[in-house]
Amino acid sequence: MVEFIRQTILPLYGINDEHASISPLGNGHINQTYLVRWATGQIVLQKINTTVFTEPEVLIENAAKVSHHLIQKANNGEYQLDVISPVVLKDGRLSADLGDKGFWRAISYLANSHTIEVVTNQAEAKMAASAFGHFAHALSDLDANSLNDVIPNFLNLPQRITQLKQAIADDKSARLVDCSEWAELVLSQQSLFDELKHVESQLPLRICHNDTKINNMLFDKRDMSSMAVIDIDTCMKGYLMYDFGDMVRAFCSPEEEDSTALDKVIARPEIIKAACEAYTEQLADILTPLEKRSLWLGIKVMALMLGSRFLADHLNGDVYFGIHREGHNLDRAANQLTVFKSLVAQESSLKAFFE
Known about the structure:
By secondary structure, the protein is an alpha+beta fold. It has 2 domains: 2-56 and 83-109, Phosphorylase Kinase, domain 1 (2-Layer Sandwich); 122-354, Aminoglycoside phosphotransferase (APH), C-terminal lobe (Aminoglycoside 3'-phosphotransferase, Chain: A, domain 2). 43% of the residues lie in helices and 13% in strands. It has 11 helices and 11 strands. Strands 1, 2, 3, 4, 5 and 6 form a 6-stranded antiparallel β-sheet that branches. Strand 1 (21-24) and strand 2 (32-38) form a beta hairpin. Helix 3 packs parallel to helix 8 (269-282), helix 4 packs parallel to helix 9 (289-315) and helix 9 (289-315) runs antiparallel to helix 10.
């Protein structure tokens, strides 16, 4: 792949340095991402997974709109983070569709940037939550309907439950016997499904990031201050409770999301409280009272939804999320559903943070 990129892709960007270094970047589950460095510059190059993003042009168009809006905000002094922007090809396009050789695009690279996988303290939680809140606030005056859905029904819990039920019924890889208890846990949450339906119908549509994991927040490794929100490929209309919920379910546990040390997977109250305070402070002038209360629901829903998705993919034979070991998606599912159980067990105290 490296030589293909060097010989075929880089020249499309006017990069003809035979000594350019090309190395994998990050640990995303979906796209193939590379850091390209040459004598006079550096970019992030991606081969978009067109099985997941079936209309990659929509992804490119949405990302460009979001980037342009944030740059305008920054120029007006209303956005304090750096902005990841698209890199154009020599012919002025934002992407290259090479058919069976892939759909490629490039974005800017921020020097001195650093990601983390696990939040270790309240200060990191506040910093990340504040950055994602600031990002959401900056996009609050951009019409939510100006972005098209990159993945329709991406955060649709009823549909995800339907997909899990189908995966259970099919049991294509004969794996249900090893995970039936986790499946029963997901399917037993009817009261949560009913609550979500009621609350969601009353929330305002916002432009959301839709993938607010901690490793989609860049820190400046020189002082570990907030640097940028990245991976805006799934930006589209939605509800802030999902962005907040995805962020917190991803870092409220002291363990990574595929850790098998389930006895250590817990929802840390102090981390959730810190995130709530920082996020709502950034959005104080636009957040409705119901939106604030819904943030707690969002944490539970996102932990359950991601656990359900990992479990369905395990049952289907690992066809969506990339795996690095046998049973990897089951490990991820067990981890997220353990987070969910911990959240529910502490509901009476944790819910008070969002009143």
